[in-house]
Amino acid sequence: MCNGILDLVGLALLLLVVFLYTCKPRNQIHMHRLLPLLILFASISTASDLFYALWENYPLWFRTHLPLWVNIADNYIYFLFHLPSIAIYSLYLLELNHVRDKEDPVSKLFWVPLVVLGFLLLLNPLTSWFFHIDAEGMYHRGPLRFLWYIGAAGYVIHGYYLLLKERDEQMRKPLVAQTFFMTLAIIGTMVQFFQPSLLMENYTIDLSIFVSFVSLSRLEDVTEWNTGLFNQHIFTLWCERDFKHHASFTLVLVHMKDWKMLNESLGDHAFHYLEREIATYLTSFSRWVYTVRDDIYALWFADHAAMIQSGVVRTLNERSKQPWSIDGEQVGLRLQVLAVDSPRDFNSLSQLQDILIALGMQSSPKTVMNLRYDLRLEEARKQKLLDTLSRKCGEENGLEVVYQPVWDVKTRRFISAEALVRLTDPVLGKVRPDELIAVAERNGSIVRIDACVRKIVQQILRSSDLSGFPIHVNLSMAECMQEQVILDIIRSTSALGIKRDRFCLELTETASAYLPAVAKNNLLKLASAGFHLYLDDFGQGQANLDHLIMLPFSVVKLDRSFVINPLGKKLRANTISLVKRLGMKALIEGVETKEEAEAVIADGVDYIQGFYYSKPLSKDKFLAFLQEHKFD
Fold first, then answer.
1. Which of 74, 90, 224, 425 has its CA 20 to 30 A from that of 591?
2. How far apart are CA 121 and CA 135, in angstroms?
3. What's the chain's average pLDDT?
4. Which of 209, 164, 161, 216 is nearest to 184 (CA)?
């Protein structure tokens, strides 16, 4: 007697997979291209196995109501669809995990078992090598039936082998479940070989399909929540696999040049809608679309010819000239498109990152086809190296503090100095301060750099040579937000015996464009503790007069635009007058010539800082400078 209950359960599992598949978002369905074909073959195989079970359990009824050829045809249908369904299942697992090991010797022979067994099945009516049905309608195994079981187990093992070969942290949990159920599928195949009446093979395969679909298609693991596109981690993971296997592929990188502006101006709801519209549009060209960065998408193609055939570069270039409709509003979005080939244009993740950085640095939108030299790759590599340097730079890694004296117009003497950062690297040489600070502010390392500078300055202030000479250092907005940093500054100066009016703190205006209440309270705490506060780079950022009125700045520093910019020159006298009316001193930076010095003095400035009076000096030269000018 044959057991058909397991086949019924298997069909129910396949039906559940179909239901879950139809419920998935459109972009997610792209992951499962082979699933409909797999479900079709597995369902026909399981249904034919169920028909065989019913024939064997109720032979009298079936023999009296159906001709013998129906039973024979059912068995041939089973053989035609069962082994191919297992082969498709193996391919489905590999595609779902983006495994493309074309060099694997087993993969090169993937279709050989199907071709050989299919040919032998064609000869079966003459040879009965696999099975034959006698005149009574009874099924009998042929002498080569075992080859079918070996082929089925072989395809499952092949897929399992490649998955384990490509295992990583992203797949670790799903593989635990798959290991068990794929092993169960192999056991089911072997059990049916020895006990054919149990009919376990189709059930275990159907169960494995179900578990694989559920465990390897979790949206939160591989896709972005808003767009449904594959996330950056998956992009990195699958690119590394391709590099590992020296596989050639083509990427089309799509840069949204107005991403930041639109994100700030449209609002969350409208902007997320725009992102979904773009994602849907991109997936019409490729099933494999990734969010590489907030403003950069990547479309993967098997080769350059496939990319050209899709027409993606030409079409996107035309589409970027047309507005996107969002809630009835027409929104313009500049799309910059770049197609690059691996390994011709890049052959490592590091080189690809250089291209991504350079793509974001392009000054104007244009479509580029494999013109890698159009990108500022050297500048991108420099930015990446600066990012690394800024995170670890210190006195032992080339960081140096230099001091630029400040001239007092009224007393005609130097009355203070600003501590500035310099960095020298064996590869980059001397790094421009503005480059280092810009990178450090982006990656957050400015907090550690400023803390390092403060420590160095505090040590030099302890020396007798500088006991009465003020030095001002930078204080970042990130530090203003941290009460612990403020308390550490107060405690450290007290512990070292440093007069607080000699340890001045500069807050850049660009950083103070938006001052939360916490930052304002911390600045007031510093001022009440006796520290002099400077507002740096006035005229360069977006700070408003409220900051000058509400916060107790001692000095307002006007940047060099008030020296060289025609409009700045016109506003200079009024700005200096305004600062003085508020009870603060006005300091101008960047004065480099005698003519510039005379002009700003005529406009009433209090202090001057610039190359005309002194360049930034190293510690030893600075101390010698003070001795020369006989400072106490």
1. 425
2. 20
3. 78
4. 209
Q: How many residues does the chain have?
A: 632
> Could you tell me the two tokens for 43?
């369902």
Binned at pLDDT 50, 70 and 90, residue 192 comes out as low
Among 361, 86, 82, 92, smallest CA distance to 217 is for 92
Read off the pLDDT of residues 529-553 as tens digits, 9 standing for 90 and up.
999 999 887 765 545 566 677 788 8
pTM: 0.52
Sheet holding 368-369, edge to edge: 289-293, 296-301, 249-256, 335-342, 368-369
| Paired tokens of 224 | 């972005």
Least confident of 189-193, 228-232, 428-432: 189-193
Angle between helix 433-443 and helix 446-461 axes, rounded to 10 deg: 120
User: Are 480 and 522 within 8 A, CB to CB?
Assistant: yes
Helices 5-23 + 201-215 axis angle, to 10: 20
The beta-strand segments (E) located in 215-332 are 249-256, 289-293, 296-301, 324-326, 329-331
What tokens appear for 193 in the block?
A: 């070989």
As given in the structure block, the two tokens for residue 364 are 């104007």
pLDDT reported for residue 366: 44
Instruction: Give the separation between CA 615 and CA 433, rounded to whole angstroms.
Output: 14
